[in-house]
Amino acid sequence: MTRDFNDDWLFQKEGQAEERVHLPHDAMITEPRDASCRNGVNTGFFPGGKYVYTKYWKVNPEWLEKSVRVHFEGVYQNCHVFLNAVEVGSHKYGYTPFDIDLTGKLQAGENCLRLMVDNSLEPNCRWYSGAGIYRPVQLIVEEKQHIERIRVKTLAINPAVISVDVIGDSLEAVTVSICDRSHILYEGEPGKITLQQVQLWSDETPKLYTCIAKCKTDEKRLDFGIRKLEWSAEKGLLVNEKEILLRGGCIHHDHGVLGACEFWDAEERRIRILKDAGFNAIRMAHHPASQILLSICDRLGMYVMNETFDGWYVPKTYHDYARYFDECWKDDVRSMVESAENHPSVIMYSIGNEVSETATPKGIKVCRMIQDYVHGLDDTRPVTAGINVLLNVYAHMGIGVYRDKGEYQPKPLPPGKSYHDKKSGSAFFNAMAQKLGPLMFFMSKGRHGDKACAPAGDVLDIIGLNYASSRYDEDAKKYPERMMVGSETMVADLPYNWSRVKKYPQLVGDFVWSAWDYLGEACIGDWTYHSYKGLPLLAGQGMIDITGKALASMYYMQIVWGLRKKPFIAVSPLNHADETPTKGAWQFTNAIDSWSWEGYEGVKTTVEVYAAGESVRLFLNDRLIGCRRLKKFKSSFSLVYQPGVLRAEALDTNGNVIAQHFLGTAQKETILWAEAEKKELRANGQDLCYVPIEFTDKKHCLKPYIEKRVDIAVEGCVSLAGFGSALCKTNEVFDRNHHMAYRGRCLAVLRAKNEQGKAKVSISAEGVEPVVIRLEVK
Q: What is the band of 337 on the pLDDT scale with cuts at 50, 70, 90?
């Protein structure tokens, strides 16, 4: 029996009163942001803390003779678990699942489970980590002789042959059934099984089957896909004997206004939007993905590069995972592999990100050791690691490497400015990228770059290259047997990168940083206007912002990939025409798809057009503005704003129109537009309803210059889980019932309660009619 164990926990921050919460719960998102906290821009100025989670529940006397455990998908971090005041387990890493065995330790009647979570030592992460029990929890009660897990592998596809292993101690009378919904394809013993007339799993056909394993005392189910994976420098990366090119993007784990809380609906929405935008692969940066994410990628058809760590034994922040890498790495790698091995979406394991340790002989030894360990657990997928070549060049010279000022002390750093870390590792590289801008593209070329990454390239199945695409031509020629993946790249480099992905089979894909914007690494990619006051909060690096809106750079990627045939028009924001922003290196534009700027008539702006073709013509109200050649799928025009219609025409080499795109001005009247993405929720405490809110005209044409306060009131069987905008620099937070719109838009997320009934959501802003949304919770 597996039951939801998320309801009715007591939560207490150190020194404060208890409150009742329902998991998942992010303790960090409600911390008061503090300009002086040690986490700084890493977490968007959210501090850490110490927290206690307590759960009281009654135990059936029959359970005392059974196997009982609690499964935690993720607790950030350094937690100790107590049952009835006796410690029964602990776990350090905040991103891997773990079980707490309660067998033989329970008492009949009421029991008390308590978690002591310590995220107070900061900084310990380079991005927003969240804190507490931020992923779901399950209580698992079963016979002591039970099936521990099922493992399914695809051995062949013509015909389909799978192997099924049913793992457990002293199991008797084990049988398995392979089902397609209610249709049984096979019944019999586990082992090697041939299946007729089945559909193969891929990103385009994400077909899943169910394996039901039974023994005398237990029954378990597993969804799986039949998918053959092969890789070679000669043929590339093959799924079901067909080459695939990975249109990839990196994502962090947070869900914007929800913080780090992991909900099925939040992850499903994100993966669906990413897939609809054109991505067919994600890289989980920089830690193992949750079971929810992998299950959704299986169902929707999204390839996954699943990553273990941000680093190994050299710290990137003072209190990070490096401090217990030697102690924990093997258990955490095993946890990642075992939680991913049955997911057809997972096509690659990454064993580290920007691991500058690979610039040293010791680091190469560790690299081989981890890869060999992964191969021993799962030999059906290739292993990679993100190698930042420039970082390795500097590390080889002793530059940008973290150095402790004395012996490491696992205690809070002194307050004030008495302790200051120099930027090192990935943070050092980010600072360099900010200074060098487009020159970064060339910095990894040549013999120094070759020397810095060649040892890792010799070890890894596929070397991941972070911001080192300038090496592609050179290494494809010099190392014809070496496989590569652009594990982290900038969107401005996509035209070059994608041309090489198509040219070289050994280069299997490109993963842009980042596919979806995120909390922390605050303002590193944003084009920041200093008229926005407050602390940096969001990275501003996403091709899609935290509300789920695709930005101009996303449409640019679609055109480069060949997925969008129409041109795309983007306009520099006229409400900031008199300001010069601080430009982040990761975004090449801050232009947006709007020609609605009431009150800015006569103001000069830049219009960017992205298109495939030889050149592009731009018209305003049928008047020709100009005709420009396209360079790297882009051309720019300078013009004065006046209402009307922009038209862009993409032309071929003969001047013929290939395709056109229009951008028109909104009508005068402004309305507050809000629509629930679903109207019915289940009364389970987990279902979410997303409500995008925009200032538009009656035809839903966005007015991005309107940035005013929006209020929301919630009644009935839902609660407000988060409310905010995509503004990167602000003192606003996401747990209030009001927020300023940014670029005419904000987002509310509602969470179902456990009781059935109705809900009413009222949304209002000054000068417009309010909106009322009614929901059913069943």
A: very high
Q: Which two tokens stand for residue 34?
A: 């503090």
Contact 401, 315 (CB under 8 A): no
Spatial CA neighbour of 317 closest among 42, 33, 37, 91: 42
Query: Which residues on adjacent β-strands are paired with residue 11?
Result: 19, 53
Contact 728, 537 (CB under 8 A): yes
Closest by CA to 166, choosing from 182, 188, 144, is: 188
DSSP annotation of 177 reads E
Q: How many CA atoms lie within 13 A of 204 on its CB side?
A: 7
Distance, CA of 369 to CA of 391 (rounded, Å)? 22
Q: Which of 699, 717, 688, 705 is nearest to 776 (CA)?
A: 717
96 pairs with which residues across the strands? none
Rounded to 10 deg, the angle between the 291-300 and 264-277 helix axes is 40
* Average model confidence (pLDDT) across the chain: 95
- Residue 680: other Cβ atoms inside 10 A: 12
* 88 pLDDT more than 80: yes
| Nearest in space to 154 (alpha carbons), one of 20, 319, 346, 336 | 346
Residues ≥6 apart with Cβ < 8 Å to 745 = 547, 549, 692, 693, 694, 695, 702, 704, 725, 726
CA separation for the pair 418, 405 (Å, rounded):
12
Query: Which amino acid would we find at residue 340?
Result: A
Please tell me whether the peptide bond between 159 and the residue prior to it is cis, using omega within 30 degrees of 0. yes
Neighbouring residues of 439: CB distance < 8 A, sequence distance ≥ 6: none
Contacts of 70 (CB under 8 A, 6+ apart): 5, 81, 99, 100, 102, 113, 137, 138, 139, 140
Six token digits for residue 130: 């969240």
At 414-446, the pLDDT tens digits run: 876 545 566 666 666 666 666 666 666 667 788
Distance between CA atoms of residues 241 and 200, nearest Å: 11
| Residue of 748, 681, 752, 656 lying closest to 711 (CA atoms) | 748
In our burial notation (b when 16+ CB lie closer than 10 A, e otherwise), range 709-727 reads ebebebebbbebbbbbbbb
Distance CA 4, CA 93 (A): 23
pLDDT of residue 428: 67
**DSSP code of residue 550:** B
CB–CB of 591/618 below 8 Å? no
Strand-pairing partners, residue 386, are 353, 464
Q: What does the DSSP 8-state code read for residue 577?
A: T
